[in-house]
Write a structure and sequence with these properties.
245 residues; alpha/beta; Nucleotidyltransferase, domain 5; 2 domains; 7 helices; 30% helix; globular
């Protein structure tokens, strides 16, 4: 079975059909830069262009960088503020003519890792932490997702954690890996004190550079790098769609 997954990000919107037996892309992904301003109409039009590249029909899955409840965006931390309160699912369905499943981007990445990656076969409490423009989180209890945890916004030193320890902060401030890792470690230790996971999966683009900073991290939980990396959002979106197809 194949379904198309779409990963809506701040800089690019990318999608591909996913082989749901293997968790691999069934065709090279199609990526289009995210329109600016990233208004609902503009983003939905771009999603339609992305999926139009593939000869598939039926339900699609879409990630979105916000808290999503019943298809609506309840937050807009890293997206255009015009999305706040918008019906993301209906907006995408109207533009594409396809039924859509919409979920938080970190939740989608976590679903992909639980189904096909570093979390496959793991029980108990498993957490996914994505380090990128912000800090995203996904939490699973006995394999079931607890949606929209948004624990990248916990307070560290009087600040929103993602404004202090994200990958974007490392890049913007030119932090050395060790110095940045100390910030990440402070965040992870605070995070695990709240939810006590047995496994923490580190995702986001920086996961492929784990050799540069994992040695500076010290958590009670087992710590591993995500395996699906940049394809996790697409794969997770397709997995979520398959549950509603």
């Amino acid at each position: 079975m194949e379904l198309v997954g779409v990963d809506i990000g701040g800089t690019g919107i990318k999608g591909a059909p996913v082989d749901l037996a293997t968790g691999t892309l069934a065709a090279p992904r199609n990526r289009i830069p995210t329109p600016q301003p990233a208004t609902p109409a503009a983003v939905a039009k771009t999603v339609a262009e992305v999926i139009g590249h593939f000869p598939h029909d039926g339900r699609i899955g879409c990630t979105f960088p916000a808290v999503i409840q019943h298809g609506r965006a309840l937050t807009a931390a890293n997206v255009d503020k015009s999305w706040l309160g918008a019906d993301v699912r209906s907006t995408i369905e109207e533009a594409t003519g396809r039924p859509a499943t919409v979920l938080n981007d970190a939740d989608a990445a976590g679903m992909a890792e639980m189904e096909f990656g570093a979390g496959k076969g793991r029980s108990g409490v498993v957490a996914m932490v994505t380090l990128g423009t912000g800090i995203g989180t996904a939490l699973f209890v006995e394999g079931s997702l607890v949606p929209n945890t948004e624990l990248g916004h916990i307070e560290i030193k009087g600040r929103d954690a993602e404004t202090w320890a994200s990958e974007k902060v490392r890049e913007d401030k030119g932090l050395k890996w060790k110095k940045w890792a100390k910030r990440v470690n402070r965040y992870l230790q605070t995070f695990e004190a709240l939810v006590n996971p047995e496994l923490i999966i580190i995702g986001g683009g920086v996961s492929k550079k784990s050799v540069k900073y994992f040695q500076y991290l010290d958590t009670r939980a087992e710590l591993v790098a995500a395996q699906l990396r940049n394809e996790a959002g697409i794969v997770g979106a397709a997995v979520a769609a398959s549950k509603e197809a």
